[in-house]
Design brief:
Blueprint (H helix, E strand, L loop, with lengths): L3 E2 L6 E7 L1 E2 L11 E2 L5 H16 L7 E9 L7 H14 L1 E2 L6 E5 L14 E4 L17 E5 L4 E5 L3 H7 L6 E2 L5 E3 L6 E3 L5 E2 L11 E6 L3 E5 L2
Parallel strand pairs: 2-5, 3-4, 5-6
Antiparallel strand pairs: 1-2, 7-16, 8-9, 9-10, 10-15, 11-12, 12-13, 13-14, 15-16
Bound molecules: iron/sulfur cluster.
Length: 224
């Protein structure tokens, strides 16, 4: 049984499968087991070993944007075991900030009128939207970019500064709306290319990407 899965070619999302349940539900197709909770410590150790082994696969990205625990019933494992798994991931991968994000901007809101034009970007912070939700890591904000064929959304936190210096620095939209620039490390990120850093700067990691969905009302941005 595999405990860990990769999801993307651009960056890595890790799914941690916790295959334990208190009892088996008849309709359930998930790979889960009841009555074997005594195996949890061994399983957690095996999960950590699998994380380490998979991290050595050269053609997989080393930047983790999302860590998801599923099952089964993940709450059956202890907080200490979850910490153990996350510590292992942090030791083997470059984990950039992850916070819950889910908000919608309205096309009828004058703050966002420009975003309906292809090739334009807009910065959204918690002061721009009515609901008091976090808008990106450390409330640095989210950049939404109109690609003409859909919208991209990026966390403004510079992944290069976060990884290398532990700093929470918000990137700014550059002279052209297609670039975002970090005022600290000077990395330039290309928004139409999924927030990939240009080769002439120090940055190694792409901006954290969020899901987007366009409707007649506006653009929803979320990550879970
Ligand atoms: S994963 Fe959920 S639905 Fe499936 S057996 Fe466990 S508790 Fe039941």
């Amino acid at each position: 049984m595999r405990g860990v899965l990769f999801y993307s070619d651009m960056f890595t999302s890790l799914y941690m499968h916790i295959p334990f349940c208190t009892s088996r539900c008849g309709y359930c197709d998930f790979n889960t087991y009841a009555g074997v909770n005594s195996l949890i410590p061994q399983y957690v150790n095996a999960l950590c070993r699998e994380v380490i082994i998979l991290s050595t696969i050269d053609n997989k990205p080393k930047t983790v944007h999302t860590i998801y625990f599923g099952g089964g019933t993940p709450s059956l494992i202890s907080f200490e075991d979850i910490q153990k798994v996350i510590s292992t991931i942090r030791n083997e991968y470059d984990v950039i900030p992850d916070v819950y994000v889910d908000f919608t901007i309205s096309f009828s809101d004058p703050q966002f009128w420009n975003i309906s034009t292809a090739g334009t970007s807009v910065i959204v912070t918690s002061s721009n939207i009515a609901s008091q939700v976090s808008v990106g890591y450390d409330n640095n904000g989210v950049i939404i970019y109109n690609t003409a064929s859909g919208y991209y959304a990026f966390d403004r936190t510079c992944p290069n500064c976060y990884k290398n210096s532990g700093l929470s620095i918000a990137v700014e939209i550059g002279d052209l709306d297609i670039y975002a620039v970090c005022p600290e490390c000077k990395t330039t990120y290309v928004l139409p290319s999924s927030g990939t850093p240009t080769a002439d700067g120090p940055g190694e990691y792409i901006l954290k990407n969020y899901h987007t969905a366009e409707s007649a009302y506006g653009v929803r941005v979320w990550n879970r």
